[in-house]
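Task: sequence in, structure out. Protein: Transporter.
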Amino acid sequence: MELHLVPLHWVYLAFIVLILGVLIRRRDTTLVCVVGIFALGLIATDSLSGSVSGIFNSFIYATQELIGTIFIISIIVAMSRILIRTGINEMMVAPLTRFLRTPALAFWGIGLIMMVTSWFFWPSPGVALIGAVLLPVAVRVGLPALGAAMAMNLFGHGIALSGDYIIQGAPKLTADAAGLPVASVMEASVPLVIVMGVVTTVAAFWMMRSDMRKGKWRDGLVEGRTAAAAADEARIALPHRWKQALAVVIPLLFIVDVVGMFALDLQGGDATALVGGTAIFILLLVTMLAHRNKGLEQTTEYLIEGFQFGFKVFGPVIPIAAFFYLGDSAFTALFGANALPEGSQGIVNDLGVALANHVPLNQAVASVTLTVTGAITGLDGSGFSGISLAGSVARLFATAIGSGAATLTALGQVAAIWVGGGTLIPWALIPAAAICGVSPFELARRNLKPVLIGLAVTTITAMFLV
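Result:
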C-alpha cells in the first residue's frame, strides 16, 4: 500500500527549507524552529493549548536527549579552568616542547598535541590549555603566530571536533536525528575525518610555506595582549612537586579511561560517563589541593563557570534539535500518532520514501547535497546547532537511495563542524585567534581554501562509500 503524504509532512518539509534559507542569510533559527514546532503541534492536535504546550515539551524532550552532552562539556570546561590557573597544563605539555625545533615540526607538533587534547578536553578549553605554553615555543623556532593559530584551529576545531570520538557530542546529535546508533555514525566518520584532516592540513601547510617563501605572508597580528597573557594574571600558587605529580597522574587517568572503553566495550553514554566522572574527580582533587580551606566553595564556582559555558554553547542547539527530533519518535511521544497516516514510519522516513518514488537519486547527488547542507548549517558559527538537520536530511536521502545512512550522516556532520565549529566563521575562531594574538578574520581567510579543498575531496570519497 502506497503511503500518502499529509499536510503534516509538507509543513515539516517547508520549515526545513525555511531553516536552510535563514542559515544561508546567517540569521538565527530559534524563532523559525519555535514557529515550526507550534505549526506541527497545531496540525497534530487541532488545539491551541496543545500546540503551545508542545513547544515547551519539545524543548524538554530535546534537553533530555542532550543533557549528557551538555554536562560532559560543562564539566570538562570546569576542570580545564583549574588546570590553567594552577599551571598544571604547562607541566603536562612541557616535555613535548623540546621536539618543536623547526617551523614544520612546530606546526605539526602543535596540531597533533591540540588534536589529542581536544578529544579529551574539547577544542575551546584545549586552546587555552596548551596555547599559552606552545605559542612562545613555536614563535621562537620561526613559526608565525598565525601559523600556530591555524594548526591549533584545524586540528582542534576541525579534525578532533568533527570526529569527537571521546566525548561523542557531535555524533550523538547527528545519530539521534538520523535514527542511528552513535557507534555506527562514529565508525562511518573515521575514513571521512581522516581524508578531510589530511587533505586540509597538508594544503594549509603547503600554502603557508609557499606564501612565506614568496613574501606574501601576512601574520594578522592585533594590538593588545593575548588571552594567554590575561590568563597569567589569575594564577593560583601550587607547590612545584604537586604540579609535577598531577601533570603525570591526570593524563594517565584519561589513558586508563580509553583503555577501559575498549576493554569493557563502552560506547555512547557509557563512555561519556566514564570521562565525565574522571573529570569531576580531577576537578575536586585539584581544587581542594589548590584552594585548601576554600576548596568547597571554589569547587562550586568552577562548576558554575563550566555550566555557564555549556548552556551558552547549547542554547542555540536546543530549539533546532527540538524541531528536528519531531521528524522521528519525538512526534508520537509529544503529539501522538493519530495525525500521521497509517503505516507511517515517522515524518522524515515518510518523506524519504516519497522522494525515492518520485525523484531519481544516486550516491553522488546525495553526497553533494549532504556536504552543502552541513556547510550551510555551520554558517551560524556554532557547528552544533544545525547538525541535527544534517542527520535528518541524511536519513531522508539514505531512505531514498536505499543505503549509506551512516556515511551520509557522518559527511553532513564533518561538513557542519569544519565550517561552523571554528575554522571558517570568524566569530567562531575567536578562541584560537585570541590566544595567538591574531585577527580572526585573517585566520578565517587562511583557512578558507584548504577547508574547501578538503570538503571537495571528502565528498568525492563519500560517494564511493555510500
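Residues 223-233 have pLDDT under 50 and may be disordered.
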